[in-house]
Amino acid sequence: MNFIEQLLQQVPYLNSPIMIKLIKSIIIITILWLLKQVVNRLILRKITDMKSRYQWRKIISTIIAILGIIIVGRLWYEGVQSIATYLGLLSAGIAIALKDLIANFAGWIYIISRKPFEVGDRIQIGNLAGDVIDLSLFEFSLLEIGNWVDADQSTGRIIHIPNGKIFTLDLANYDKGFKYIWNEIRVVITFESNWQKAKKILLKIANNKSENITTPVERQIKRAARKFLIYYKHLTPIVYTDVKDHGIQLTIRHLCETRKRRGYTEAIWEDILKEFAKQKDIELAYPTTRFYSTDKVK
User: Fold this and answer.
1) Which of 25, 49, 245, 277 has the most Cβ atoms closer than 10 angstroms to its Cβ?
2) CA distances from 28 to 34, 58, 75, 177 (A)
């Protein structure tokens, strides 16, 4: 850097202190950028897992960015030799003007330290839900689900949310603890139908579709119980009975994988339609209006 400064002092219009610092800053940023590219090539070419590659890229980018801020900052504040003093003056000067950025940075620290979610998790924060596809210093990105699309499927939109929102909005994680959720399918049959027979048919269908996931769920719940107070007494499907104004409602409640809820619902409904079509004493109900006349027929 001293050699570069001596060269610049010999060039007209470039020998001012500000221009020298500016050119030095550009050189430092260029060197750090080249260093990042070299490190990425050396490390990432040996990693085949996409999630691991993404995490390493973010770690390398973060380290290079922090180094750049410290080195360039000390260049412009050469009188401040202590990094702690420099950071103290910097934070005091921008605390008010950049409070949102500071909140977002604090949110990033909280996310990477406490891990309320990680890249790849499906979460809901406030009224927004989706799969976390990116996490940076000031924001995280979701591949949106729901909204106008049913059954938690992707809308195709990417939503960018400031990290500071983690402190002010409710957060729900679909994947933390265990990667299954409870799904409910409501089937309404007429009052004249044989509801007991229908209930047995629905329970049989639910058991056939859910029998392969009970064992993995039990293992995941045991692991989650070491950290969270999670306890389910029954993991097998169940059918609840209720009465609505237009028929008898039978609700299937069963466990399914987070990202396969629509597939499970479709498979169960197809079996329901096939089985009910074979039964003469079971009919699906829908809202109807009935009229009664008290006039005597003459």
Assistant:
1) 25
2) 10, 20, 10, 44
